[in-house]
Amino acid sequence: xxxxxxxxxxxxxxxxxxxxxxxxxxxxxxxxxxxxxxxxxxxxxxxxxxxxxxxxxxxxxxxxxxxxxxxxxxxxxxxxxxxxxxxxxxxxxxxxxxxxxxxxxxxxxxxxxxxxxxxxxxxxxxxxxxxxxxxxxxxxxxxxxxxxxxxxxxxxxxxxxxxxxxxxxxxxxxxxxxxxxxxxxxxxxxxxxxxxxxxxxxxxxxxxxxxxxxxxxxxxxxxxxxxxxxxxxxxxxxxxxxxxxxxxxxxxxxxxxxxxxxxx
Length: 264
Prior knowledge:
Elements: E1 14-17, H1 42-47, H2 52-77, E2 81-87, H3 93-104, E3 110-116, H4 121-127, E4 132-137, H5 146-156, E5 163-167, E6 184-190, H6 197-200, H7 202-206, E7 210-214, H8 226-236, E8 241-244, H9 253-263
Parallel strand pairs: 2-5, 2-6, 3-4, 3-5, 6-7, 7-8
Antiparallel strand pairs: 1-4
Helix pairs in contact: 2-5
């Protein structure tokens, strides 16, 4: 039962290593790993909100945080910078990621864990850059969790002294709740979404170290108040560092890349 995020019943997660001709598995021996959430009906959850539900939520997050701490130690021991990329669907995570990989492939070793409910479409785009990538399909699940990352890393096997980009499932709510063991959470917001997203979904912006405002090349065609958006983000998280970029024109990417080099 996943009271924290409300993923659907009988959710199955599969992990695909695209280097292995799309055979779906999580371990080197080809075993399929299934991640299952069992749920109560909304009325039952509401009835127990003050006792069992809260205890169960704490238990779920507690187990996840324990695994996340192990992942963090794994990354640290190999000097790997892990970034958790979060956004709503269509914000441009994959486009920004492929542009970054292509621009930096000769300067930085980057591997990717790609999270989606279904398909390997985004992972195929990333693979086309020559980057190592593992696809995690969450089924009806709405976020990645620390156990999925642990299993994905077994397939990905990223090199020492490198960067692992974790592209989370498109969702501005649940991914913010689950620590994956990353060094930093990065929330990506596009100018096509509306400048009030930071105050409508404050938790994800409050818990992110970095905000990337994407698709700024489209600003001349949109009614988007950049200054108001930045003020909202700072209102929610005064310490958040903001980059304004276009993966199409390359505008603003140099500052983002400099931050990446500094952290890696």
